[in-house]
């Protein structure tokens, strides 16, 4: 059982006290009741909890194509150069990249030496530890409640699952009692507005949409509406584009600046949705969008059946060199609402190696 996201605790809260939702902006202070103090009821749960085991089984099945070639390396009887050479090839085939592959091999050899391992099965366990440690900085909960509203801008290339991911995230937020407002800032594709509108209807949340309007203007109006309506979260969808489409990347920068004019400090989250099937292309996208927008988080989709799940190791090594991690808030392994879940580094490493 787990919380889908983290909600900002009020400053006065202590570790021993229950965490309550922060007051809405400009909300009147509650009056002090006369007489004995009434018992304060427990706050509602921060997120709808769901069984994790079934989802983990899906993740493990989805990563089977990636992990099978890696796991086969450990079926032998000796720990020798041949084992490491086979492991190097398997990690490269999984799109871990040259840098991350070398990092993992060096780390693994150190662990094997320190543990005095003699069985390849032990090496497999040590590799899980090495992968989990490399990925650990990417593991962080999405925080809402620090800002009123929390404004998110979601970007990505065409076909990555951007609008669908927004719909699933909206469902989880709405289920946890958050008031969500969507902004249909992909004004160039009618199907995108219709798709987002369908998600808004399904989740019973409000949406700001304008046919053929300026994406930045729609985003501006949505943030202003979110402030006026005391929404907890505003999520702006944007048109899919390739990082090489410089004029469209400039438009994303304009949307980002315009959101900042609507609310000082916004957007508070700039999330990139990447397709886990694209391997090293996913890393290229992360680097390009981060260079243009300074990403705050990632959503990795379509990990159900990919042979390139090792790319998360490449992203983690890039983030380490960047000096600040870009957390993977969520990963997706299917079409169902509950198939989008929080990222757990050790869980991912275990699923990767079966």
What does this protein structure show overall?
- This protein has 354 residues and is α/β, with parallel strands linked by helices.
- The protein contains 12 helices and 10 strands.
- It has helices at residues 52-62, 64-71, 81-93, 98-115, 120-135, 162-175, 190-203, 215-228, 246-262, 280-293, 311-322, 345-352, and strands at residues 6-7, 143-144, 150-156, 180-184, 206-208, 233-237, 269-275, 297-301, 328-332, 340-342.
- The strands form 2 sheets. It has an 8-stranded mixed beta sheet with strand order 5-4-6-3-7-8-9-10, sandwiched between helices. Strands 1-2 form a two-stranded parallel ribbon.
- Helix 11 links the parallel strand 8 and strand 9 (328-332).
- Helix 1 packs across helix 12 and helix 5 (120-135) packs antiparallel against helix 12 (345-352).
- The longest helix has 18 residues, at 98-115.
- It is elongated and about 65 Å long.
Outline type: elongated
Q: Between the first and last Cα atoms, what is the distance in angstroms?
A: 21 Å
Estimate the mean pLDDT confidence: 86
Q: Could you give the order of the helices and strands?
A: EHHHHHEEHEHEHEHEHEHEEH
Q: Assembly state here?
A: single chain
Brief description of this entry?
The protein is of the alpha/beta class and 354 residues long. 45% of the residues lie in helices and 12% in strands. Helix 3 packs antiparallel against helix 4, helix 4 packs across helix 5 and helix 4 crosses helix 11.
């Amino acid at each position: 059982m787990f919380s889908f996201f983290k909600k900002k605790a009020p400053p006065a809260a202590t570790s021993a006290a229950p965490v309550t939702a922060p007051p809405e902006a400009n909300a009147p202070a509650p009056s002090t009741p006369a007489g004995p103090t009434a018992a304060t009821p427990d706050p509602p749960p921060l997120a709808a909890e769901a069984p994790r085991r079934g989802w983990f089984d899906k993740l493990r099945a989805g990563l089977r194509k990636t992990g099978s070639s890696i796991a086969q390396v450990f079926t032998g009887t000796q720990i020798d150069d041949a084992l490491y050479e086979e492991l190097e090839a398997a990690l490269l085939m999984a799109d871990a990249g040259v840098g991350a592959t070398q990092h993992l091999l060096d780390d693994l050899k150190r662990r094997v030496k320190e543990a005095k391992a003699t069985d390849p099965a032990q090496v497999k366990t040590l590799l899980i530890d090495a992968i989990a440690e490399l990925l650990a900085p990417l593991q962080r909960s999405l925080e809402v409640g620090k800002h009123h509203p929390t404004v998110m801008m979601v970007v990505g290339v065409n076909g990555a699952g951007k609008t669908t991911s927004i719909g699933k995230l909206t469902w989880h937020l709405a289920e946890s009692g958050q008031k969500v407002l969507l902004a249909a800032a992909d004004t160039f594709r009618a199907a995108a507005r219709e798709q987002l509108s369908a998600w808004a209807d399904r989740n019973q949340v409000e949406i700001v949409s304008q046919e053929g309007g300026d994406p930045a203007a729609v985003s501006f109006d949505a943030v202003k509406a979110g402030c006026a309506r005391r929404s907890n979260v505003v999520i702006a969808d944007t048109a899919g584009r390739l990082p090489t489409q410089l004029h469209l990347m400039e438009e994303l920068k304009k949307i980002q600046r315009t959101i900042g004019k609507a609310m000082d400090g916004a957007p508070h989250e700039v999330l990139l949705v990447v397709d886990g099937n694209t391997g090293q292309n996913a890393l290229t996208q992360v680097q390009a969008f981060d260079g243009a927008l300074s990403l705050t988080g990632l959503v990795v989709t379509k990990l159900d059946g990919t042979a390139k799940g090792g790319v998360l190791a490449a992203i983690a090594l890039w983030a380490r060199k960047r000096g600040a991690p870009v957390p993977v808030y969520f990963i997706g392994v299917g079409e169902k609402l509950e198939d989008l879940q929080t990222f757990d580094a050790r869980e991912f490493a275990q699923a990767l190696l079966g």
